[in-house]
Amino acid sequence: MTADCLSPSDALSRRERLTGLTVAIACVSLVGVGLSLSIPLLAFAMAARGASGALIGLNAAMGGVATVMVAPFIPRVAAAIGVRPTLFVALALGAVTILGFHVVAPLWAWFPLRFGFGVSLAILFVLSEFWINALAPPASRGLVMGVYATALSVGLGAGPLILAGIGQEGLLPYAVCAALFVVAGAPLMLAGDNAPPLEKPAPGRGVLFFLMLAPVATLSGFTFGAVETGAFAFLPLYGVSLGFGPAAATLLVTAMEVGNVALQIPLGLISDRMDRRLLLLIIGVIGLVGAVALPLLGGSWWLYVGVAVWGGVICGLYTVALAHLGARFSGVDLATANAAFVIMYSIGLTAGPPMLGLGFDLWTPYGVPVAMAVLLAVFTAVAALRLRAPA
């Protein structure tokens, strides 16, 4: 079913729709703060207890494993018990598991805890993004998704700053992270009946069906997840190899985040005025050219500008792809398509750093932008081939 023809937002007043959108964006943005706080917190905690880098990486990967295993079933569960109740359960699970890391001593037990935390996040992102997309007015869907992506980027950037302020020792950082999940439930209390309903999924219309039906949108999730996470891991090493000091090299990641925040609303507005599949292709081409051009900027301050613009455009893969899914599907089809998107994004999160790491080892430091260019070239080729297919 096409979402722009029949949307749950059609039955809502402008105020009810705005309230519903604000609630969902606020909820998932607070979760983003907690997520970005938890990642370095848990890494530091494991390292302090003597865990190897490989063990820390394997533990972090449990979140992706949880998403791949659980996301296909989220629409069915939400259809059975409701979107809001499912979100409340996920928030409670997130708060309990993050506190569990402080209470539970054996490191082996942190793996099921990380899996549970990943289940919580998978539910929260799949259903929150479905909620936002379902209530977004068709004429301004891209703008709404741009606002969401901007708010989420701000939230993801705030977590490490909070951790730097409160420190890594004792119960406090875990309690603050858990509190963010609890507070994220407050906006949901205001939602009333504005949560979009979900019907039972039709047989044969699962995640694999939507991976095949919307390959460009779902591949956008994989490509963005791989490039963004890989860039966050290796841009500082790339900068150091070019002669930057460690602090200055780390600011390359900050520059990328600034671009993410600055460009999502403009890209969302553009997507409301053109074929989103064509825009995704254009983003892929710009990303590919930008990755190839990064070495030409050398170690000058222009590298910060280039990374900011390039990173902001690449983030548009996430924003525009979500808007494309929302324009194409509605109801449980939209929720399932979003689950497919989140699964591909999670696979990208897992695959990106090793791919860029291999590039860095084979050709230091230029293998990093080359590896990103390869990922973007594959996406661009698929997007170009699919452009002539029916929307």
TrEMBL record:
Alphabetized Gene3D superfamilies for the sequence:
MFS general substrate transporter like domains
Q: Which GO terms describe its cellular component?
A: plasma membrane
InterPro entries xrefs: MFS, MFS_dom, MFS_trans_sf, MFS_YcaD-like
Q: Which residues form the Major facilitator superfamily (MFS) profile domain?
A: 209-391
Topology of this chain in the membrane: Multi-pass membrane protein
Keywords in alphabetical order, please: Cell membrane, Membrane, Transmembrane, Transmembrane helix, Transport
Localization annotation: Cell membrane
Q: Name one Pfam family in it.
A: MFS_1
Domain of life, per the record? Bacteria
State any single GO MF term.
Answer: transmembrane transporter activity
Which PROSITE patterns does the record cross-reference, listed alphabetically? Answer: MFS
Q: Which residues cross the membrane?
A: 21-48, 54-74, 86-109, 115-136, 143-166, 172-195, 207-227, 233-258, 278-297, 303-327, 339-360, 366-385
Asked if the record carries the keyword Secreted, the reply is no
What is this protein called in UniProt?
Answer: ABC transporter permease
Species of origin: Methylopila jiangsuensis
